[in-house]
Here is the input.
Amino acid sequence: MPKLVEHSAPLVEPRRYSPRPFGHAHDYHQLLFGVDGAIELEIDGHAYRVDGEHGLVVPAGAHHVCAGLTSNLQLVADFPASSVALPARLMARPRTFAIDTGFATRVRALATRHPCDAKPPQHAWQRAAALACGLASTLGLEDAHDDAAHFPVMAIDAYMRANLASPLRVEQLAARIGWGPRRFHTLFCEAFGDTPHGYQTRLRLDQAVQWLMSGTMPLAEIANGVGYPDQTTFTRAFSRRFGKPPGAWRAAALA
Here is the structure.
């Protein structure tokens, strides 16, 4: 198997695949969203197709062989496990997913914008956060029935996304789905790949990145909108994750 490639930040870009098959593996999750044409991938002896109506999750470490079946355009998202907020369980196995009309419109818009290499890295974070939110909703619809019988990962994810501005009280969230706090915390960490508070922070900052990139919302309003008690606390959390304060982040992105 080829040596795994290091990759520490999300990357979202359009790509075209040659009809000549090639194989590799990487230590980040990869998501393929079909835009035009089609490609085929082989993972662990199973064939998968990506086209305008179907996408594919390629888990980190999974060796895959891919080839373009026709002239094609794909939107490819490379997501390290600790980057944008998505439950780890969603990325645990290869899986196709349907791309409905609304999601397809957003995917096409991202795939046909100006070349990604001409954009500051902040734009990749914005695109990744937007895709993660849409993907969680798409995969959640497919997993809702199975999850309900076990640990309801997607119901929890949806609840946390809808309540970013509210303090996270693990005991209340655990009681909401009928689990004790200690058992809930253990199952949450296994399913999400993060603690409840760590995952909430990633969700909040994913949303903050999207608002920052709009270029219009005041920093204090963004801080309040994603649940921080004041702009100073928000700035500290943002800087710890992204390496620079939100004002400097936005200025660099829009320069």
Observations:
- Residues 1-7 have pLDDT under 50 and may be disordered.
